[in-house]
Specification:
The chain has 657 residues and is mainly β. Helix content is 1%, strand content 43%.
């Protein structure tokens, strides 16, 4: 395909294209056609770099001006008009012409690219294009080619018919080639490449290329576009490969992982004394590789990039001239950038912990390791690691199809076996020595009550039962823990509770409590108690009494502890409503039964006017009817008695004389 158009190549024999070739061209005129004529049709051949390649340049304006001296010459007249008249030409980027021409751009489609547009003269002229080519190699075969198209859309009374002529500078024709009529295009403009081969005679190094019209111009007749004139060495086929056994023309490798490749080519058949030269494309320029002059050459680039190689061939005497040698197909070696793989791990670590593997970023990952470990995660983990999992872990990180491998060594150390010793009982206030083993260093917690928490055998003096945890470390900083419980046996403590007060005939519950480890208890005396072996017996004493709570240790920690509780029994009081203070020895005082057993009580007597005639705290001396050392008159008096225990009495008493 050329510019997305199907290409047909016809190689006509004997150096001049036959009428059959031209007629075939008419049939396939809607496609792009390359017509070549070679001396030996059917034999594969190779071209060299163009000695001449005329594109007529490019620019931003529609017209480029007349042909410059280094681009050739013409017998036609230059014009800057979009539509040259008969016998004129222009150099332009597009054919902005009247409706009889197709609108087209230059052959390669380059932005702003120019082409030569020719309107043939009414009568045949000498030539419309001529160019001298210098510095050729005599005895060497060359190929001349040019792209031509018929610009007319419809009736063409005289189609373009062009003779390409290769002549010596003296005018002697070396070889010529006739295109025949360039067919009229009916569905759009088509570029057609015409090419032929010729061999320079001995002693000739400069030639003249000339293009002449064989048909007259006129309206409408013989209007054409010309572009991309090339003149290249032509010779034996050169086929290069990355492999001697197959035609491999491209390979891809990764930087730092490339392998040497031997470039090979088949011998050139057709030269008397062939010579060879390998080349590398550097910045768009082909450069000879020093010393690479055989049919094979080994390359091994390690820097990322795209490398192109080819081999050139010519007669030995001409191998040094680029104008005389043919070249092979391209060999492309692509070296992709290989990323930097980094493997990491939280190593060293101790058995039982989790191994965390890490890898640098990539598009895919492949881990391998001891015990058949594999993973495609970037950062895999292995829980409950064992010493058997120690070793080398390798990860292959792939970036841009380039795998890079990195390795990390993981060390796994065995955990120590921590022993904190056996649980122990001590009495409150005593101490004990802890006994840890299994490592090289120790750390106890909590530290409360320890003489030194960082030794194996600290002295423990806890005030309460404590679970001590020891962390044992070995020389690899691996740790394990164990626990020992120091049970603190509390000494007995008795608490008989608060003193009690009851009225005679009532009962009360004692509120005893005890402290201590493994104790027994009982109350004394065992009188008026419903059960003297419980902490909360019910007491019903008829009078004041003191009970003692006894607490006895059973584990030989401490001695018997006791505590007392006093139960005050208030007797029932009887308040008379009459007494006769007449000194007859009978009923001379207001005798309130049992009131004297309430020493905090307050007794007050009021006359009918509210005046206090008697007041007493406690009632150790009964009222004898006197007030201010005088007898109170016979009559009714009112009293208020507050026992100060929550009970109060009020009423009246009659004093009779």
């Amino acid at each position: 395909m050329i510019n997305n158009t199907p290409v047909f190549i016809i190689d006509c024999c004997l150096g001049v294209c036959t009428e059959m070739c031209r007629r075939f061209f008419y049939v396939i005129a809607l496609s792009t056609l390359i017509i070549t004529c070679s001396p030996q049709s059917g034999n594969a051949q190779s071209l060299g770099d163009p000695v001449v390649h005329i594109t007529f340049g490019a620019g931003t304006s529609t017209h480029a001006g007349a042909l410059p001296a280094d681009s050739g010459s013409t017998s036609y007249t230059y014009t800057s008009a979009d539509f040259p008249g008969d016998g004129s030409y222009t150099i332009e980027s597009t054919t902005n012409s009247p409706g009889i021409w197709w609108t087209t751009t230059d052959h390669t489609g380059n932005t702003g690219g120019y082409m030569m547009v020719v309107n043939a003269s009414v009568s045949k002229t000498d030539y419309f294009y001529k160019r001298e080519v210098e510095g050729l190699c005599n005895g060497t075969t060359y190929q001349f080619s040019a792209w031509i198209g018929n610009l007319l859309k419809s009736r063409d009374i005289s189609p373009p018919n062009i003779t390409f002529s290769i002549e010596t500078t003296g005018g002697t024709v070396i070889q010529s080639y006739n295109t025949g009529d360039v067919a009229l295009q009916t569905s759009g403009f088509k570029w057609v490449q015409y090419a032929f081969n010729f061999t320079l005679p001995a002693g000739v190094s400069n030639v003249v290329i000339k293009m002449s019209n064989n048909s007259n111009g006129g309206a409408p007749a013989n209007d054409l576009a010309l572009d991309d004139i090339t003149f290249s060495p032509y010779g034996p086929s050169m086929v290069a490969s990355f492999s001697s056994s197959s035609a491999t023309t491209s390979v891809t490798e990764c930087a730092r992982q490339t392998q040497p490749y031997t470039l090979t080519a088949l011998p050139a058949s057709g030269y008397t004394s062939p010579a060879y030269q390998w080349q590398i494309n550097t910045g768009g320029v082909w450069v000879d590789i020093t010393g690479a002059t055989t049919l094979s050459y080994t390359v091994n680039p390690t820097t990322a990039g795209t490398y192109q190689y080819r081999i050139a061939s010519a007669e030995t005497a001409n191998i040094g001239s680029a104008s005389c040698r043919v070249v092979s197909n391209l060999l492309t070696l692509t070296v992709n950038t290989a990323g930097t793989a980094i493997a990491g791990a939280n190593t060293p670590l101790c058995s039982g912990n989790t191994l965390n593997l890490t890898a640098s970023s990539g598009t895919s990952y492949s881990w391998t390791g001891p015990n058949g470990f594999t993973s495609t995660l970037q950062n895999p983990t292995i829980p409950n690691i064992t010493t058997a999992a120690a070793g080398n872990y390798a990860v292959t990180v792939t970036n841009a199809s380039c795998p890079v491998t990195a390795t990390v060594t993981v060390n796994v150390y065995a955990q120590p076996v921590a022993k904190a010793g056996n649980d122990v009982n001590i009495c409150e206030g005593d101490n004990t020595t802890l006994n840890a083993s299994g490592g090289t260093s120790y750390s106890w917690s909590p530290t409360t009550g320890l003489s030194d928490p960082n030794i194996a055998n600290p002295l423990a003096s806890p005030t309460d039962t404590t679970a001590y945890v020891v962390t044992v470390s070995n020389s690899n900083a691996c740790t394990s823990t164990d626990t020992v419980i120091v049970n603190v046996l509390k000494k007995p403590v008795a608490n008989a509770g608060a003193d009690k007060e009851i009225a005679q005939g009532q009962g009360v519950t004692l509120n005893g409590s005890v402290k201590g480890s493994s104790v027994t208890y009982y109350w004394t005396p065992n009188t008026y108690l419903n059960n003297n072996t419980i902490l909360n017996p019910v007491a019903t004493p008829p009078e004041d009494i003191t009970y003692t709570l006894h607490v006895i240790p059973t584990l030989d920690c401490g001695t018997e502890a006791t505590d007392d509780v006093f139960v005050r029994v208030y007797k029932s009081i009887t308040i008379p409503n009459t007494f006769t203070p007449n000194n007859d020895g009978t009923n001379d005082t207001w005798n309130i039964t049992a009131l004297n057993s309430y020493p905090q009580s307050l007794t007050q007597v009021f006359d009918r006017y509210g005046g206090v005639v008697f007041k007493s705290i406690g009632y150790s001396i009964p009222w004898d009817g006197m007030y201010n050392n005088k007898q109170v008159p016979t009559g009714t008096y009112y009293y208020l008695i507050d026992l100060k225990n929550g009970k109060k009495f009020s009423g009246w008493v009659l004093v009779v004389r």
